[in-house]
User: Fold this.
Amino acid sequence: MRNTEQPKTYRVKSFGCQMNVYDGERMGELLSEQGITAAPEGEDADLVVLNTCHIREKAAEKVYSDIGRLTKGKTQKKAPMIAVAGCVAQAEGEEIMARSPSVSMVVGPQAYHRLPEMIAGAVSGKRMTDTDMPADAKFAALPQRKKSAPSAFLTIQEGCDKFCTYCVVPYTRGAEISRPYAALVDEAKMLVDGGAREITLLGQNVSAWSGEDDKGRAIGMAGLIRAIAAIPDVARIRYMTSHPADMDEDLISAHGEVSKLMPFLHLPVQSGNDRILKAMNRSHSAESYLKLLERFRAARPDLALSGDFIVGFPGETDAEFEDTLKIVDAVGYAQAYSFKYSPRPGTPAATMDDQVPMDVMDERLQRLQASLRRDQQAFNDASIGKTCEVLVERKGKLEGQWLGKSPWLQSVHFTADVAIGDVVKAELIQAGQNSLGARVLENVNA
Assistant:
């Protein structure tokens, strides 16, 4: 039974990538504009938005499990109104409505600006589905940014035209679309006015962003980075996720020329074997990827590198997996994401022959992650003794402890008399697998 009472409180539960986090924040802002307030931590909400991700295996089944938990043992009056948003909503659409009568709304990632009218429809007893893809209309309809965390996300580009054979993004997020330059600079200024010191530019293929500046000149993402860096209270800029095919010379140069652009690059390679890369429809080879990293490191020698890896892609042999370990050894990643291949319905790889057995994928993933952990620890160990600026993001678990990020996106913990949003100069004195300890030398904000 569906709840059709007008919601007074909401909760958005976001899964997956940083772009989903951004979308979740924007949905929250949109609902707040309608007079629906965020439910206090630990309290039930009248409206729950499940902002889903479709990248991993069984993503849809996890959504149905969440729906079941929200409604189990509850009457219509006590159960929340449920909206399913994001990429699973886009991919499943009416199937969610058919399987889950308790769901009131299904809305795709390009249509969530229509939530207010969908809620109105749900209150009147209707069940609403909207999986259109008018990306520009979405951003134009969203409210202005008002309050920001010290580190804030800014989506500049959506969709992907690369059609990697394992990936659902082109089907759930659509074709590549770049948001207009002026809108992005305005939103960056709003984020800063709301308390942001660091802005991370987001996109499914963020480096494919292109537009015209305020003088009508064609620019790429490097030009946008330079414009945002000119905003006085922006202290740091980052970006992710990029595709090796769209990393141009201007962007490489920006890493050496724009001091506010942090020395961190997330650039997925996925595999170290050229045959597998071709089967994935990745346009780079292992050699061209390594040469590209050399150019970035020449521009910014202290650059920390991050990547994505898939093990067990259909047909991958033991020898081809060893090539992935070789590229890991060659690069020395500061951090990385690694996954077992999981077939996504509708993608070419899902129907390929020679699907790799699960136990083989498990063993390969363990070996890969052991190498990645080794290199992450080595990068952190090499940081001991460095002095750097750390952006204070939140309180730690211990009394008087604070947490923040180094320029290289390492988690740093320390004790000091500071406030959230401060930038401190600190000496890195202790290295763990996932974080570093620091001694604060100076509060740059003081």
